[in-house]
Amino acid sequence: MANFIKWLGAGLGFTLGGPIGSILGYAVGNLIDGFTKGDVERARAYRNTSRTSHSGDFEISLLLLSSVVIKADGKVDQRELSYVRNHFIKMYGEQRANNAFKLFKGFIKNNKISTRQVCLQIRQNLTHASRLQLIHFLFGIAKSDGFVNEAEVNSIKTIAGYLFISQYDFESIKAMFYSSSESAYQVLGVNKTASNEEIKLAYRKMVKKYHPDKLQHLGEEHVKGAEEKFRQVQKAYENLQKERKML
């Protein structure tokens, strides 16, 4: 119990308050035997005496929004659960991932999560680059069972809107998870009629927007996660270079 309390408290800032704090309390109260209101207060106290970290806030936000997308099509697919768990193990290690999954199971079972309220709290406290990374991860979950269905796309689109992610950025990230002749153009946010110079400008813009260094404040584990998104931008540009024989 002590390790879990430390994990919950360490680095969690805005997530122990507001609507997300209420959801956290519900999850731990229903899933962890012997977890009391006093334990929540100890987690809060531990947070206040620890070094503040945005990583914990991002982590809880990721779990909450993942649970929303996983339930979007009316069923919980084991492949999607495994995707989340494996990525958390990869990012944080076995012990921290196990603690996170205790909460995640509670989020999955909670049918009263207000996506709008959760997203408003996230939007007020996480950077734009962090919110872009959340959307990328959510599409990864949706694709983990082999394809992204309409219900999942609509769920992620709703989340993106609440997070103030533009349609332009949403379509760019979405295109990273589809294989088509137009995907490379969509990733860079241009159409097939764009000139080579326009494509080069779009590429430079995306490089700045999706550069992994923008997530340095979240820690090395999230920088590595952002590298995949960055590579997809580079791959899209390289494909267009070959297709158009650009110099």
TrEMBL record:
Residues 183-245 form the J domain. Transmembrane segments: none annotated. SUPFAM superfamilies: Chaperone J-domain (SSF46565). InterPro entries: DjlA_DnaK_co-chaperone (IPR050817), DjlA_N (IPR007791), DnaJ_domain (IPR001623), J_dom_sf (IPR036869), TerB-like (IPR029024). This is DnaJ-like protein DjlA. It comes from hydrothermal vent metagenome.
